[in-house]
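Many groups now describe folds with learned vocabularies. In that spirit, our science desk offers one protein's residues alongside their backbone shape tokens.
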Amino acid sequence: MATLTKGDLVIEVSKKSGLTGADAQRALNAVEEILISALKKGDEVNWTGYLKAYVAKRAARDGRNPATGQAIKIPAGKVAKIKAGAKLKAAAK
């Protein structure tokens, strides 16, 4: 099983779109910045059929330090979540 890295994506976008490698890199960087900016504002990103990215609240909870086994309190926080859309789910079958 291979891993598709950001560098691999740049190459593939360049090949399929006719963009130069530098232009493909800028395009992917722009998508990355837009996604991060939207999530920082608390907005949801919905790419219909492919993915839905959003910020979810995580409640405070008790945990354990894996090194010592000592009980610790984990504070409430936020976490980015991504759900696959129907087209991605179908591609994984």
Q: What stands out?
A: The chain is about 40% helix and 30% strand. The longest strand covers residues 51-58. The mean pLDDT is 95. Strands lie at 45-47, 51-58, 61-64, 71-74, 77-84.
